[in-house]
Fold this sequence. Notes:
This protein is mainly alpha-helical.
Amino acid sequence: xxxxxxxxxxxILLASIATPAFAATTYPKIVVSQKTNTATAPSExxxxxxxPAEEYVLPYPGMLPDSPLYFxxxxxxxxxxxxxxxxxxxxxFYVLESDKDLNAGxxxxxxxxKSFVMTTFTQSLKDMGKAVSLATSMKGQGKMxxxxxxxxxxxxxxxxxxxxxxxxxxxxxxxxxxxDALVTQIKSFESEVxxxx
Length: 197
């Protein structure tokens, strides 16, 4: 009985410490035009310029899979997945997890830890697959998937494709074939997301 209570308290503590982090949002740049020399009314105008598509910012991944304590992060993420019950928020959660894994894979690649890179990218696509599958089933049941969630998935998939194509160009042999397979999977997800619009 005491063990069960200690474990339950530990899980609740882990869940309460975990603060949800969402993908960084880029805001349009503010451009201020040059001020005229007239003393009457200032002529400063502020006009937003649209942010380019490639400026999708990946969230900080936190602990990387090569850490001996990575299992704690995985446990926390699974608890968070269980606690998020709203389907739309769960889609966003899966996209966030996918983006974190993508960024972790990039960092592992920069550190030349090849044994972790492919598994991290594969996990990233598993989470993205959960998001796409949930959105597709919601639409099939006649439930509304927000346009923000659909756009978020589309931008995330575009970033995934860009990163993995970059990895394809830097590898060869079996490793290149594995990355090509991931790119094919991303394109499949992109076509499913396009049907949701």
